[in-house]
């Protein structure tokens, strides 16, 4: 039930996220590496509700999107996105909005990277962001209240992060309230997730295990995040 509620309200809860701006920045990274304005085709691994995938599609890319959560994938499919795996190799694979941090073991992280590698053409790029362990140690996440207004919808999300330095994980408990203007009945639900914070050394090792030929040093990508680019 919580998964379906979260999927239904996910785009409202994260309405302030600049998906279009992030996709523009990733297209610039692709241009920097290849000399080509942008990829022709993209595979979005861990697409959530498909907001990044939709921006790539609006830019003229052929996009496939996949996610482990059926409720999230159903929302992505409702956006008229192709869901599932591509039938052939693609120019770029992406895993965005901290998909890597939901991988709680090295084996799962390496498995994600291997899957990203399989669907790439030789010379193709894998672009992904991640919470960086060093940035999070220096600036630990704190409790916060987020307000969201989308049309006649209003949302309030209260987050309580609990950081565990011994194993570099963060558990985030979210209390969410969604209200519609003129409707006295609010929808209230709690949800939580755990992030594993990866070191650059572990990420490089997992990229090597997956078969990537090279990767560049990470670039800053938000308050506690960095973005990586790996080449098949």
What does this entry look like structurally?
By secondary structure, the protein is α/β, with parallel strands linked by helices. 32% of the residues lie in helices and 35% in strands. The chain has seven helices and twelve strands. Strands 1, 2, 3, 4, 5, 10, 11 and 12 form an eight-stranded mixed β-sheet that branches. Strands 6-7-8-9 form a four-stranded antiparallel β-sheet, with helices on one face. A hairpin with a 4-residue loop joins β7 (153-164) and β8 (169-180). α5 packs across α7 (200-210). The chain is globular, with a radius of gyration of 18 Å. The mean pLDDT is 95.
Write the layout of secondary structure elements.
Elements: H1 2-13, H2 19-34, E1 41-45, H3 51-58, E2 62-66, H4 70-78, E3 82-83, E4 90-95, H5 106-118, E5 120-131, H6 133-138, E6 144-150, E7 153-164, E8 169-180, E9 187-196, H7 200-210, E10 214-215, E11 219-220, E12 225-231
Parallel strand pairs: 1-2, 1-4, 2-3, 4-5
Antiparallel strand pairs: 5-12, 6-7, 7-8, 8-9, 10-12, 11-12
